[in-house]
Amino acid sequence: MSTAARTAAGLFLLLAVSGCSAPPQNGAQQFMVAAANPLAAQAGVDILHSGGTAADAAVAVQLVLNLVEPQSSGIGGGAFALYWERASALVQSYDGRETAPAAATENYFLDAAGKPLPWRQAVPGGLSVGVPGTLQLLETLHREHGVLPWRGLFAPALRIARDGFHVSPRLAQSIAGAADNLALFARTREFFLDADGAPLAAGHLLRNPRFADTLEKIAAGGSAAFYHGATARNIVNTVNNAPLNPGMMRAADLAQYRVRKRPAVCFPYRAHKICSMGPPSSGALTVGQILGMLSHFNLGRKPTARAVHLFAEAARLAYADRALYMADSDFVDLPGGLLDPAYLEQRARLIHPQRAMEKAPAGRPPRLPAAHYGKHRGVELPGTSHFSIVDARGNVLSMTTTIESGFGSHLMVDGFLLNNELTDFSFVPRNAGRPVANRVEGGKRPRSSMSPAIVFNAAGEPFIVLGSMGGSHIINHVAKTLIAMLDWNMNPQDAVDLGHFVNTGGAIKLEAGTAIVNFAPALQRAGHEIEIRELRSGLHVIKKVHGKLTGGADRRLEGVALGG
User: Fold this and answer.
1) Which helix (H) or strand (E) holds 167?
2) Could you say which of 384, 423, 504, 550 is catalytic?
3) How far apart are CA 28 and CA 552, in angstroms?
4) What is the sign of the dihedral through the CA atoms of 103, 104, 109 and 115?
5) Residues of the chain scoring pLDDT < 70
6) Is 384 in the active site?
7) pLDDT at 17
8) How far is Cα 500 from Cα 437, in angstroms, rounded to an integer?
9) CA 388, CA 110: separation in Å to the nearest integer?
10) Given this model, what pLDDT does residue 19 score?
11) Interacting residues of 511 by C-beta distance below 8 A, sequence separation 6+
């Protein structure tokens, strides 16, 4: 193993053995990376130390995550990124979300009898795979904001792929939990299970020479080496000839894929402006609705049962609008007034200060489109990864990246996993006779909950960058963390560590093993149904105040914030 790989492996093992993914406070003066794995964070820090920008570092971080956290993200998936460049003082958003094959129709997930496939049955195999967008997003970021040579950004991942890394406790646990599905397909079975069919154990030295070969081609030829040629043919053949749930992807679907640059969706909260990702993500709109409604209430100076009640009610109302209206805006006309202040004030009036509402209907925001949609009911399991970066120039990146649920479709091509992102579409194309906004259509991008965010102070300077993993709970995790920092004045690590409270339209979920569960009796008296359960997140936060950077990393995973 090379010296660099041994150093990185030693960093991971030190953190893993200590049982602590990050110090309580991670401070740095000039630059910082907060990510879900120490090896990935260190790769980004090394790029920043070499004079790279946040865009340069993002390439290295993502490629290493593909190796050490393959169950969550990689070049076989999709991503959203927000980038604030100091030189222009503009925030730009990049949509690298996967797309449905052109041949897909709204009946894509219906069986021969016209009934929707069970969600878990539809995930493994080729049917769930969307055209990946992460690699083209990285290339676009680098082309527009990078300064270091593209090829050099691949060096950390190439070293780790060839020399190997020690399987972390979290990865080992993930492999064990998905072993039955991983065993269904030859490539994942050979890679993640040993010769006896047992899941790889923590500490196992895992090499990925096939991925190294793929990276070499992309480093030399850019994303064209992925979207055209041998790798593209391998993706198409793997998807369409899967032994389970074969898909209908074509070479043209890959060749025609394009990252979309979209306007960031920004909204006020207290004295701040928050920007996040608009459609096809529901993140900015739903977080914005929650905070917009809560701006009409005093949430106090610390978490209380009352504050959790108000949060849950606002989330309940916001998710009702999300289920009815939000989808890929290239295919669906969204209401223009989902974040209209008067509309959110009207919705806030539906929240009783002490009593839970029985049902939260969708509202009628201003500028409703002529089309009327049916409600989407779907499944979004926790998955995904997020990293936040601030470079020495003051540029800021917030990027949430995914292959959807753990290990995606469980199909592996050229050393990387393919996503199951198409299962984020509504399996039922019509509800009560009306088309569902998030139904499957050829070339369409499935609705997402990913919520990469940047917070600006009154002077227009970015001072918080954050995001999370967690499926449909991402929106709640991000909104909770923003409230913890902006209302309750918590530092990044304390805000990340704060026990989760989640509402997506039904019961309030409270994070087991945290002080938040102490609010359960009061919430039940207010009429809430309560579930106490594990709530996984992957929050990674950087805050800048008076020129000093402070990080918060999610210790529910193996997160770390590193800087210099």
Assistant:
1) none
2) 384
3) 12
4) negative
5) 1-27, 370-382
6) yes
7) 27
8) 29
9) 39
10) 30
11) 499, 500, 501, 517, 532, 533, 534, 535
